[in-house]
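Good morning C.,

I know you're traveling, so I'll keep this short. The sequence:
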Amino acid sequence: MLRVTSGSDYAIRGVIYLALRSPKGTMLISEIAEAHDIPERYLAKIFQGLARQGVLRSSRGIGGGFALARRPDRITLMDIVKACEGPLLVSKCLSKKGECDKKEICGMCHVWEALQSNILSVLKQTTIQDILDKLAKQKEIT
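The tokens, ready to paste straight into the viewer:
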């Protein structure tokens, strides 16, 4: 099964929550973790990684917490997933372009490359703002 890790899932949900609840201010990690039933220490570690990659910013002390480092329309899902996962590969045969030792008998390289390309395209093109807009539309409908 090809799936996003819990770390990336938590990171995306946490960033969306932060963008919804505190778009211009900071928020405590405890509040975000509680809202999504995520272990606080785990989310803190994930958010620290996102801060190192420039997706979030963190501040200590009174009024401290985490905040978006960029506008929601400037944060892509790829930014978040890459910060959590590193490079994404749907198959190990894509790890070194043209160096698959099963290429002559397998024939799957072009399929994996197409799948990889499509996944990366969606992640690169989808911003946090896109998700916020969809959530707002859903609220209008209900």
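Safe travels,
E.
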